[in-house]
Design brief:
The protein is an alpha/beta fold. The chain contains 14 helices and 24 strands. Helix 6 links the parallel strand 9 and strand 10. Helix 5 packs parallel to helix 6. 31% of the residues lie in helices and 25% in strands.
């Protein structure tokens, strides 16, 4: 079990590059099962969740060649249909293998997926949708998916599930006839997966909307694709630098709408940046002030389905708010356990009122002090690291490997920005 040891109250500053989107890369790795031909993915983040997913597909017989952030996959010789239970317990994304494995190879058997414990994460959308496509699902100690007669279908998703949409999308591209997914998720990483599938020969229309139409094809072919940038990582580094009063230059280009979704919320917390052709620039500010809503009302930050503010940035935005002057209400709508980590911030001296499991009011600025904490999930772990970077004294954050699941070379990047952070076993 690894831990981060951090000495805070040092302004961060420097330049960073942003890796590929974790939530886009993981379903793309599953999509390689849909063809016998090689699929090459570029800018794949070197994070723990990707490493586990690669182990999973390699155990099925997929050849994997990795060179830095480039991965070449070939599923020409898939030997197994049963997934390793231990690996499945380590990642939520194991469920994404059900659709492509059953649709093309006839069968998939996997235990309940693991991942972060941030509230109930249903699989009903996956099960109901796959049944409509002709893939029967049974559940005992494991989920067993069997292809009966694959066919297109008119499907109304009972919730706009991201992974549910991705699973059904991957199965539907091989289903004869027309499939229409209503109430589909339309997050940027779902669109990115759809673009890869189209490069592989899939016929999909409606990407970016909540109504996807898929005309099934007999086979898919290989393709090359570059994973889009991870806006969650971008928001995390912007929050860390802004909270410590530093400045940051971010290399690369970012989709304007995705950037606007984040900028709108960060602006409420007093954080703004300039965007150019070569990236972003965050200027240093000694004082952050929360902007009140019209009429002097208490501002509210809430998450939701795209294009709302992403739930994965709620934790880091909350910590950023502890360092801004004023009060703000955070309303977590997606996961009932996401906000439980605020108890750890209270121990560090944050001024937070927990209204209920979904709502907290943050009053800032607070003088945080170092403590010994444990990371409960990826995003809360990053939030605790940001809090430790702001705090006086030494902080120890246990379960560093949890944060590794979503952030590549985190301590190296933070040290390059001037943070006093080391990893210890």
């Amino acid at each position: 079990m690894a831990r981060f040891i951090i000495h805070g109250q040092r302004p961060l500053g420097g330049t960073v590059g942003i890796v590929g989107n974790k939530n886009a890369a993981l379903p793309m790795l599953a999509a390689c099962l849909l063809t016998d031909e090689p699929v090459t993915l570029r800018r794949v983040p070197q994070i723990l969740d990707v490493a586990v997913m690669l182990e999973l597909i390699a155990s099925l017989g997929v050849s994997v060649e990795r060179t830095g952030e480039d991965i070449r996959l070939c599923a020409a010789h898939v030997r197994r249909r049963k997934l390793n239970p231990e690996l499945c317990r380590r990642v939520r994304s194991s469920i994404l293998l059900a659709g492509p494995l059953a649709a093309r190879h006839g069968r998939a058997e996997l235990p309940p997926p693991g991942g972060d414990v941030i509230g109930r994460r249903r699989v009903d959308t996956h099960l109901h949708g796959l049944r409509e496509l002709g893939i029967q699902a049974e559940f005992g100690r494991s989920y067993v998916f069997r292809r009966r007669q694959l066919r297109g279908a008119e499907i109304l998703l009972d919730e706009a599930s991201v992974t549910g949409t991705e699973n059904l999308l991957m199965a539907a591209v091989l289903a004869p006839g027309l499939t229409t997914l209503h109430n589909a998720a339309c997050e940027p990483h779902v669109q990115d997966l759809g673009e890869l599938l189209c490069k592989m020969g899939a016929r999909i229309s409606g990407l970016g909307t909540n109504r996807l139409c898929i005309e099934g094809v007999a086979t898919l072919h290989g393709a090359e694709h570059t994973v889009g940038p991870d806006l969650i990582e971008l928001g995390s580094y912007l929050a860390a630098v802004a909270a410590t009063g530093g400045e940051l230059a971010v290399r690369g280009t970012f989709p304007p709408l995705e950037l606007a979704v984040i900028a709108k919320v960060f602006r409420k917390l007093g954080v703004t940046w300039s965007a150019g052709a070569d990236g972003l620039r965050l200027a240093p500010r000694k004082v952050l002030s929360i902007r009140k809503d019209f009429g002097g009302m208490l501002p509210k930050i809430e998450d939701g389905a795209w294009p709302a503010f992403p739930s994965d940035l709620m934790s880091v935005a909350l910590v950023l708010a502890t360092q801004a002057r004023g009060s703000v209400l955070f309303f977590e709508k997606m996961f009932e356990s996401r906000m439980y980590f605020v108890d750890r911030l209270l121990e560090m001296g944050a001024h937070i009122v927990q209204c209920d499991p979904h709502r907290v009011v943050v009053n800032g600025p607070a003088r945080l002090h170092g403590t010994h904490q444990s990371s409960p999930d990826i995003r809360a772990g990053m939030a605790l690291i940001i809090a430790a970077l702001c705090a006086k004294g030494e902080s120890v954050i246990e379960n560093a490997q949890v944060v590794d699941r979503g952030y590549a070379r985190l301590e190296e990047t933070l040290r390059s920005l001037g943070a006093d952070i080391v990893r210890a076993e």
